[in-house]
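We now fix the convention by which a protein and its fold are recorded. These numbers are not coordinates but entries in a learned vocabulary of local backbone shapes. A record is reproduced here so that you can trace the correspondence yourselves:
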Amino acid sequence: QVQLVESGGELVQAGDSLRLSCVASGGAFSAYNMGWFRQAPGKEREFVGTLSWRGRAAVYADSVKGRFTISRDNAENTVYLQMNRLKPEDTGIYYCAARPWDSSNNDYPYWGQGTQVTVSS
């Protein structure tokens, strides 16, 4: 059972940068693909990006591609989401999630509680 705790969310202005962190405990962090998702007010949760268990393969949503970067430090059991050139539409609660590297589907069984990011115009 993996526990995930996000941090780093805050109120920023459009064009600013922000880095979110997600610390994992209770499991072998390096055995999990890690994903970031977000949920804007009144909208469904959406995929932001994912990074493979070794950190070699990343996939991003088109809306963040070129602005956001996911990285991980397996020694520190931490995954990061670096967000640059933030836009008001990036506002939302950001969640990290973990999926076993050998999972046969794309479901993420483990989720954090989320951290709020607000981008003012």
